[in-house]
Structures are given as structure tokens and as C-alpha cells.
């Protein structure tokens, strides 16, 4: 197994209030077969804006991909629900698999026959979507400056913290998880005053100095979008990000106070999740039209801060950067450094972008809070996809 579990990622469930894995239920959800494409991974052009390319044109070894799909079907990589491969921004392979699943706010939904028409939790990839919404609001002039203090949007708290370090926390600090607050559980189960409670936490580092994964900062960003645009994060994202990408079907779970769960509540189709990744691949453009300027996309996927690695990860030369609610891992493989852009969510929700090889992989899964798996979605990339490239 190539993948070393970074300490900060291992801790993400405890910091995101992930639900415990339920016992398998007897229910069967979904009326379609797992997928006609699950045997050989052939993709289908659907008119949803996603271009399709053949294995030959993509320079990918079809036999290796087919063997990998069989390994996924046999459970080698855990409870995988969908597996999509893109080359040069076009869909090459698309497979779906039956498996136990959950809805983040409803619990166990039983054995599901996953297919391209079914929504799936993307969990903390919701954070990346919120960050993109912040950038859209900034580009539209609703958020003037990413270095603006966040308390400018919360005048009811500004007086309480005037003159202190908390007054120096900016939108960029929230985007990069460097606000300096001590870690605490997900804001999903907090009362309405999530931001007030966040600012009651102690600072353990000066703003901008240290990374600390904190779902409350994502909820804070969502509220800034709400206050700056007059639309809550669900409405604004649907109108200004999802709709321009041709995403017509989505769900955003609500917290106990009725607000959208910005931290981990979004559900998307796998092909629509891929569109979020393709927006990054295409430097903010979709269908030839700009949704975000390339400079903001470049900022989002640049390492705004480096997260120190320890133990085996450090010994292997692994690194982890963090952009705007986006992970940026890199590994030394055969003496060469491999850089990835990673959108990640609990349970195995993944988008991996390998810009050097013009590859993107999308995985959804149901391994919520399960640790110690012999193979992970990142192993799918290194075991199946990368070795299938014929022109590297």
C-alpha cells in the first residue's frame, strides 16, 4: 500500500463529527442494476456537458483499467460506490458498484445499487465547494478582499474582540484553516450562534501561522457568503456555481438550526462531483464560459501553507500542502515527486487531479470512519490509473 495516512487526515473525522458506522441494514435502495459499464468501464456521452473520449484516444491501457475495476468489484479497495477516470478533461471510464451507504443527516440507508442517477454524500468535499463559492462572491464584488477581517461581517462580535488577535483573522485565514483557533467539533450540531461560539474558543497560534482543521471555519465562510450576497450558501452556490456547471440535481442537508450544513452536507451525482474537479482542471471555465478567473483558481490550488509530516510519511518524503479548503499532497514515486490536487470527504469521497499527467479520478465510497483499510482510494489511483497511462 503506497498511501500513508497523514495525521491531520486521520483526525478529520473527530473534528468533523462523523457518524459511527452503522450495522448493515436489510434495505435495498435503487431500482437500476449497478451499471452496465461496471465490467469494462466504458463511459457514455449524456449531453450533460461532460466530453467523452475512448481508451485509445486517451492513451490508457483498457485491460489494466478493466482488471482494476474487477478488483474494486471484489472489495480489494473497500466499499467503493463509483469510479470515474478523466484524461485531458474528458471522461474515459465510468463504473458504479452496489454497497452499504449512509446519508450524513439520516444515517444508514442500507444496501444501495449505485448508478449515475443517484445522489451521494460528498462529505467534506462540501468545504471545497464552499471555498469556491467564496471566490465566486469575491469575483462578483460581493466580498471585496480576501484579506478583509472576518469580523467586518459580524459587527455584533467586533466590539468584544476589538484590539485582540482575533480581530486580525481574515477570510483568507478561514479559507486556509489558519485562523489559529484551538480545534473543536463540527458546527453542524451547534446552536444558531455558531460563529459566536467559534470566537469564544482560545487562539493557540497567531492568525496565519499554523494549520488546524476546523469545520467551524467553513460554516463561518458560508455565513460570510450569506451576509455579503443575501443568499444562504445553498442558494448562492446553486445559482452561481452549480447551475453554470449544468448541475441540476443536488441536496444540501440542514443543521439543527435550519441552516445548510456547509461543513459536510452536500450530496451530488458522481458526474456532477466530477464537474467541480473539472472546473479546477479548466482553470475556472466551463463550456468555454468563465465561472471563476484563472488567477483565483490558481490561488485555490496553491499551497498557502505546508502541513508538517511525521513518522513514515516524513521518512518517505511525503508532503502535504493546503490551499483554499483543498488538500495538496505529494509523494516520491520511483525517484520523482508526484503532485496531486485532492478534494476529500469522510468515507472515501475523493477527487484526485494529476496535472502533470492530465488525469483526474473521482471516487465515492461508504467507508465512513473506517480506518486501517489495506487499500484506499488513493491506492486506486496509484495501483490502477497511473500505471495504465501509455504516454507518460
- Total beta strand runs: 17
What best-fitting shape do the alpha-carbon axes yield?
Answer: globular
Q: Class by helix and strand content?
A: alpha+beta
Question: What is the total number of structural domains?
Answer: 2
- Average pLDDT taken over every residue: 89
What is the CATH first-level class name of the largest domain? Answer: Alpha Beta
Give the N-terminus to C-terminus distance in angstroms: 22 Å
CATH architecture of the largest domain: 3-Layer(aba) Sandwich
Low-confidence stretches: 1-39, 186-191
Give the helix tally.
Answer: 14
Range of strand content: 15-25%
Q: CATH topology of the largest domain, what is it called?
A: Beta-lactamase
Reading side by side through the largest sheet, how are the strands ordered? 3-2-17-16-15
Q: Helical residue percent?
A: 25-40%
Which sheet architecture does the biggest sheet show?
5 strands, antiparallel
Radius of gyration: 20 Å
What characteristics describe this protein?
392 residues; Beta-lactamase; five-stranded antiparallel sheet; four-stranded antiparallel sheet; 14 helices; 30% helix; 20% strand; globular; disordered N terminus
Give an account of the 3D structure.
By secondary structure, the protein is an alpha+beta fold. The chain has 2 domains: 7-120 and 269-286 and 294-388, Beta-lactamase (3-Layer(aba) Sandwich), CATH 3.40.710; 127-237, DD-peptidase/beta-lactamase superfamily (Beta-lactamase), CATH 3.40.710.10. It is built from 14 helices and 17 strands. It has helices at 7-10, 12-15, 55-58, 62-73, 125-139, 155-161, 171-175, 194-199, 215-229, 233-242, 270-281, 294-300, 311-316, 377-385; strands spanning 28-29, 80-87, 90-96, 98-103, 107-113, 120-121, 250-252, 266-268, 285-286, 289-290, 305-307, 319-322, 327-333, 336-339, 341-345, 349-354, 359-365. Strands 3-2-17-16-15 form a 5-stranded antiparallel beta sheet, sandwiched between helices. A 4-stranded antiparallel beta sheet has the order 11-12-13-14. Strands 1-5-4 form a 3-stranded mixed beta sheet, with no helix packed on it. A hairpin with a 4-residue loop joins strand 12 and strand 13. Helix 5 runs parallel beside helix 9. The longest helix is centred in the middle third of the chain and has 15 residues, at 125-139. It starts with 6 loop residues before the first helix and ends in a 7-residue tail after the last helix. 48% of the residues are buried. The model is unreliable at 1-39 and 186-191 (pLDDT under 50).
Amino acid at each position: 500500500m503506497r498511501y500513508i495516512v497523514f495525521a491531520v487526515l486521520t483526525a478529520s473525522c473527530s473534528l468533523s463529527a462523523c457518524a459511527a458506522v452503522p450495522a448493515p441494514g436489510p434495505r435495498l435502495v435503487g431500482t437500476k442494476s449497478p451499471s452496465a459499464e461496471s465490467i469494462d468501464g466504458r463511459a457514455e456521452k449524456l449531453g450533460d456537458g461532460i466530453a467523452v473520449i475512448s481508451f485509445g484516444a486517451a492513451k490508457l491501457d483498457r485491460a489494466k483499467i478493466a482488471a482494476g475495476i474487477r478488483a474494486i468489484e471484489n472489495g480489494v479497495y473497500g466499499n467503493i460506490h463509483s469510479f470515474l477516470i478523466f484524461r485531458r478533461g474528458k471522461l474515459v471510464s465510468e463504473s458504479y458498484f452496489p454497497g452499504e451507504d449512509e446519508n450524513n443527516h439520516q444515517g444508514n440507508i442500507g444496501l444501495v445499487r449505485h448508478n449515475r442517477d443517484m445522489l451521494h454524500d460528498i462529505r467534506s468535499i462540501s468545504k471545497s465547494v464552499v471555498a469556491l463559492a467564496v471566490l465566486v462572491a469575491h469575483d462578483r464584488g460581493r466580498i471585496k478582499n480576501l484579506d478583509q477581517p472576518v469580523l467586518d461581517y459580524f459587527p455584533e462580535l467586533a466590539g468584544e474582540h476589538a484590539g485582540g488577535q482575533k480581530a486580525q483573522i481574515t477570510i483568507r485565514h478561514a479559507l486556509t484553516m489558519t485562523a489559529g483557533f484551538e480545534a473543536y467539533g463540527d458546527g453542524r450540531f451547534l446552536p444558531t450562534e455558531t460563529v459566536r461560539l467559534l470566537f469564544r474558543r482560545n487562539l493557540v497560534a497567531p492568525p496565519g501561522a499554523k494549520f488546524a482543521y476546523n469545520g467551524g471555519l467553513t460554516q463561518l465562510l458560508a455565513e460570510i457568503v450569506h451576509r455579503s450576497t443575501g443568499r444562504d450558501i445553498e442558494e448562492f452556490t446553486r445559482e452561481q456555481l452549480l447551475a453554470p456547471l449544468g448541475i441540476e440535481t443536488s441536496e444540501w442537508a440542514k443543521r439543527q438550526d435550519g441552516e445548510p450544513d456547509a461543513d459536510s452536507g452536500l450530496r451530488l451525482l458522481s458526474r456532477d462531483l466530477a464537474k467541480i474537479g473539472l472546473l479546477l482542471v479548466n482553470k475556472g471555465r466551463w463550456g468555454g464560459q468563465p465561472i471563476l478567473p484563472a488567477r483565483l483558481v490558481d490561488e485555490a490550488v496553491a499551497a498557502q501553507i505546508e502541513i508538517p509530516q511525521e513518522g513514515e510519511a516524513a521518512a518517505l518524503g511525503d508532503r502535504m500542502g493546503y490551499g483554499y479548503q483543498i488538500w495538496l499532497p505529494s509523494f516520491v514515486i520511483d525517484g520523482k515527486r508526484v503532485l496531486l490536487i485532492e478534494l476529500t470527504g469522510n468515507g472515501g469521497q475523493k477527487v484526485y487531479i494529476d496535472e502533470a499527467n492530465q488525469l483526474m479520478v473521482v471516487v465515492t465510497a461508504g467507508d465512513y470512519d473506517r480506518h486501517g483499510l489495506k487499500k484506499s482510494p488513493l491506492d486506486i489511483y496509484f495501483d490502477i490509473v497511473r500505471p495504465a497511462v501509455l504516454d507518460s
